[in-house]
């Protein structure tokens, strides 16, 4: 049975509505993990290190998808809540067209800069060659990746979260099958991994484009629109926290790689890569839940339903706490088996990875509230507070800690820095939630 944004949500209904978004994000993360598994086992740890070394830069190129999805959906949800469906469709169409243009420009930038960036970060020899070979194929799919990321939110906004889930599953299965073919059977190595991912992202971006471009029964359809500079600026401003958060995470990821090369060499980069793949799956639950709740919050904010805002805030925070405790327990129990799965062929690397992940995974206890808080304020059209939370969480605290703690604790200090950063960010989020409670009546 379809759940509409205008309804009142109990916990069961909230979980049903957000589940497709959660599964979408987890599945998106899983098929990214498959790339790493195939490359690690079939192309070797040097190729695996190269993939992980250049990945943060490649992720930066796709960040406008998060900005447009989060910032745009909040604006469109508010317009739908106000009853202005025509305006909502014009805004939706404009954002899709703008995404294609931005994606094409960023793909061109990526082709030109992937080698200089890899060299700047310290890649040399075989690692540099691997970074360039993988990166130059992936960047071609940047426009589709941007569309894929924003359509995950737009499907929820269109009250069709299950459709978004099906598209993501189709994209993920495409990636997994092509990984097995290109890397496992044809032995194309890094190029095969990149090509499989690029094709799967094209599936994830083009299928929703076709769906929303045709007549459908949802509130949203791609059609004609004018150049609404104000809508574009509002989207960029409102979604700036998501843009900043993802760019910052990638920049911090680069800094982690630089620090690990200094303290642990290529094995440190590979170990961090394993943690990032596993962390993507865990954090995807928080991101998916936050993405799924954002259109609901935005709608009721636009409709002035303060009682429902209070209800949503209470239920969401309770669920985040439950998720956090469960994820921490699972991560600690699975640290060794997951490390064995990725790098069991190298005992020293596996030992480094398992120890690091047991320290690193404590951050799951604190990360969820910071992620939700940033998304919550975006849905309330307060991009400034959302950006402050994201900037502090992904840049200020992490950069300071990853530079300082290794001086005191060595490699363990690098793993510990993320946990302390998330703890500080959670504290800041709680402060803002209390400070703005009366202003928004949630």
Overview of the structural elements:
There is one protein chain. The chain has 442 residues and is an all-alpha fold. Helices cover 86% and strands 0% of the residues. It is built from 17 helices and no strands. It has one domain (11-440). It has helices at residues 11-43, 45-61, 64-81, 85-121, 125-138, 142-157, 161-185, 189-213, 229-238, 240-263, 265-303, 306-343, 347-360, 364-379, 383-409, 411-435, 437-440. The longest helix is centred in the middle third of the chain and has 39 residues, at 265-303. 58% of the residues are buried. α2 (45-61) crosses α4 (85-121) and α4 (85-121) packs antiparallel against α5 (125-138). The model has no long low-confidence stretch (mean pLDDT 89).
- What's the number of helices? 17
What are the secondary-structure elements, in order, as H or E?
HHHHHHHHHHHHHHHHH
Q: State the total count of DSSP E strands.
A: 0
Question: What fraction, in percent, of the residue positions are helical?
Answer: over 70%
What is the terminal-to-terminal distance? 28 Å
Radius of gyration: 21 Å
Question: Stretches where pLDDT falls below 50 for ≥5 residues?
Answer: none
Structural class: mainly alpha
The average pLDDT value, as a whole number, equals 89
Shape: globular
Strand content: under 5%
Q: Classify the oligomer.
A: single chain
Main sheet characteristics: none
Total number of distinct structural domains: 1
């Amino acid at each position: 049975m379809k759940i509409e944004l205008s309804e009142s949500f109990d916990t069961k209904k909230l979980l049903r509505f957000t589940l497709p978004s959660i599964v979408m994000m987890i599945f998106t993360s899983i098929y990214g993990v498959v790339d790493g598994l195939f490359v690690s086992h079939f192309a070797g740890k040097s190729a695996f290190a190269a993939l992980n070394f250049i990945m943060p830069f490649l992720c930066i190129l796709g960040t406008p998808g998060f900005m447009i999805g989060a910032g745009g959906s909040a604006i469109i949800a508010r317009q739908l809540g106000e009853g202005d469906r025509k305006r909502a469709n014009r805004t939706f169409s404009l954002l899709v067209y703008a995404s294609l243009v931005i994606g094409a420009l960023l793909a061109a930038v990526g082709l030109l800069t992937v080698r200089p960036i890899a060299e700047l970060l310290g890649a040399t020899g075989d690692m540099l060659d691997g970074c360039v070979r993988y990166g130059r194929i992936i960047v071609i799919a940047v426009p589709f990746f941007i569309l894929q990321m924003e359509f995950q939110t737009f499907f929820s906004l269109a009250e069709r979260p299950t459709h978004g889930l099906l598209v993501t599953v189709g994209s993920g299965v495409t990636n997994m099958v092509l990984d097995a073919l290109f890397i496992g059977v044809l032995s194309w190595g890094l190029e095969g991994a990149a090509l499989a991912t690029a094709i799967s992202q094209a599936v994830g971006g083009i299928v929703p484009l076709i769906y929303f471009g045709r007549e459908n029964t949802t509130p949203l359809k791609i059609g004609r629109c004018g150049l609404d500079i104000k809508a574009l600026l509002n989207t960029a401003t409102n979604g700036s926290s998501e843009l900043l958060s993802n760019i910052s995470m990638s920049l911090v990821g680069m800094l982690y790689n630089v620090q690990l090369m200094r303290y642990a060499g290529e094995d440190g980069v590979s170990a961090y890569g394993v943690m990032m793949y596993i962390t993507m799956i865990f954090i995807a639950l928080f991101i998916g839940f936050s993405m799924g709740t954002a259109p609901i919050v935005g709608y009721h904010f636009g409709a002035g339903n303060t009682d429902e805002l209070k209800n949503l805030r209470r239920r969401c925070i309770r669920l985040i706490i439950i998720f956090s405790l469960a994820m921490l327990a699972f991560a600690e129990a699975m640290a060794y088996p997951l490390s064995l799965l990725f790098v069991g062929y190298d005992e020293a690397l596996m030992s480094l990875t398992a120890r690091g992940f047991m320290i690193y995974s404590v951050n799951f206890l604190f990360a969820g509230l910071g992620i939700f808080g940033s998304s919550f304020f975006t849905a309330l059209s307060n991009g400034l507070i959302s950006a402050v939370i994201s900037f502090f969480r992904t840049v200020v605290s992490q950069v300071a800690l990853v530079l300082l703690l290794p001086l005191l604790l060595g490699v363990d200090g690098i793993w510990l820095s993320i946990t302390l950063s998330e703890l500080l960010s959670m504290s800041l989020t709680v402060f803002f939630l209390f400070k703005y409670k009366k202003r928004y009546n949630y």
